[in-house]
Amino acid sequence: MVQAAVFGFGTVGSGVVEILDKNAGQVARRVPGGLNVKYILDIREFPDSPYGEKVVHDIDQILNDPEIKVVCETMGGKEPAYTFTKKALEKGISVCTSNKELVEYKGAELLGIAREHNCSYLFEAAVGGGIPLIMPMLNCLEQEKITSITGILNGTTNYILTRMEQENAEFGDVLRQAQELGYAERNPQADVEAHDTGRKIAILASLLTGKSVRFDDLHVEGITKITPLDLAVAGQHGFRVKLLCVCKDMGDGQAVYAAPHLVGSDSPLYAVNDVFNAVLFHGNMVDDLMLYGRGAGKLPTGSAVVADMVTAAVHAGENVPIRWSGEVEKPAPFEECVNEFYLRVDKADADRIKSALADGICEDWTSDAAGEDAVFVTGAMTEGEFAAKTAGEPLKQVIRIYRK
Ligand code: HSE
Asked: Does the N-terminal peptide bond of residue 188 adopt cis geometry, omega within 30 degrees of 0?
């Protein structure tokens, strides 16, 4: 039997404990004797929980117990998660986490500490919730030249956009539901402003390049300005609005960004709704490959953490290697990315803006659904060109159009 501890008994941490209990038989098939949660570290007490007697408040009680081989860090945020993770790894205790904020911030360093101390730092649950994504990417796609990764990697925003489109629901009401369902971050700004999805694509881009692609260097736009009107107009033309994160090969580097996009019904990403996430890889040999599953929630995310805990337990005393150095890799300039754009403007401004943009080659999408506004889509141009041609113009809405 391998002894484990859980740091943080919130949504995901409690899911991990429940899964280790309910699926103990499954776990024991790979970890002889199973994985036992000996301690739960939290500042709170849980008198009504069946696991309440495992709760401790002092991390040293866990770190000084030589039986502990694996920790699950589900505290979230940078601190004290960083300090606690570092201390555990320095003791040779493997750490498995869903904490994408910390993985993006200190992933390379923590992987280095794990290597030095013959233990592992694993973070399958940090990207795509319950989807096995990182290990398949590292183990099964290593031989591929991956030319693009396109993800729907935030469950909360995908849930919000789906409900707004299908039920004409209000943004605030649906966000509250997402919080109640345990999908949203403690501060849901991170979801709706695309910081969460931006961190996730920064992690994938880092794993792809083996260097550190920093969230702070990315262009990131959230969904707060998307209106039911835009969803209706897009729907009339066979599109849905999705918050996509993108990492694509530009020849001399990777463009990495996150923003809402119109996704057409010819794309498999179109059918990814509610809390589901998906990541679409394009490899030069394997072609298109999509992984799909629940991107948030207690049990799906907990399941991915438990998978890592099992791996760490099986490899106790050794390092499970993940290639990610601290050398910073700047993304290719966003201005050089080529996109097509959906625009909504005041009818009085439409002709002027259209002719500045494309000398009349814009496609008109204006309809009753657009109300008082004019809507049109442009041809392909660089982000830089688009910004220059629309500088100072009163644009009511700009959404990129996803093209494979
Ligand atoms: N808030 C995140 C989401 C949780 O909605 O996707 C999973 O990372």
From this structure: no
pLDDT band at 359 (very low <50, low <70, confident <90, very high): low
Distance between Cα 295 and ligand 1 center (Å): 6
Span from the CA of 397 to the centroid of ligand 1 (angstroms): 26
What is the topology classification, in CATH, of domain 134-293? Dihydrodipicolinate Reductase; domain 2 (3.30.360)
User: What is the value of pTM for the model shown?
Assistant: 0.97
| Distance from Cα 274 to the centre of ligand 1, integer Å | 12
Beta carbon of 183 within 6 Å of any ligand 1 atom: yes
CATH of 334-401, one of 3.30.460, 3.20.20, 3.30.530, 3.30.70: 3.30.70
Residues 319, 252: Cα–Cα separation, whole Å: 33
Ligand 1 contacts CB of residue 155 (under 6 A): yes
Confidence label for 368 from pLDDT (cuts 50, 70 and 90): confident
Cα angle: 202, vertex 206, 211; to 5 degrees: 135
pLDDT digits (tens, 9 = 90+) for 177-215: 999 999 999 899 999 999 999 999 999 999 999 999 999
Find out whether the beta carbon of 129 lies less than 6 Å from any atom of ligand 1.
yes
Confidence (pLDDT) at 370: 81
Shortest-distance Cα residue to atom 7 of ligand 1? 296
Name the catalytic one among 54, 200, 242, 248: 200
Whether pLDDT at 235 is above 60:
yes
pLDDT over 90 at 358, yes or no: no
Nearest residue to 218 via CA among 259, 168, 272, 169: 259
d(CA 110, CA 102): 9
Q: Is 200 a catalytic residue?
A: yes
Quick check: CB of 184 below 6 Å from ligand 1?
yes
Q: Is 110 in the pocket of ligand 1 (CB under 6 A)?
A: no
Q: How far is the CA of 403 from the centre of ligand 1 (A)?
A: 25
pLDDT tier, 360 (very low <50, low <70, confident <90, very high otherwise): low
Residues ≥6 apart with Cβ < 8 Å to 94: 69, 70, 71, 114, 119, 120, 121, 122, 312, 313, 315, 316
In the chain, domain spans:
2-130+298-314, 134-293, 334-401
Fold (CATH) for 2-130+298-314: Rossmann fold (3.40.50)
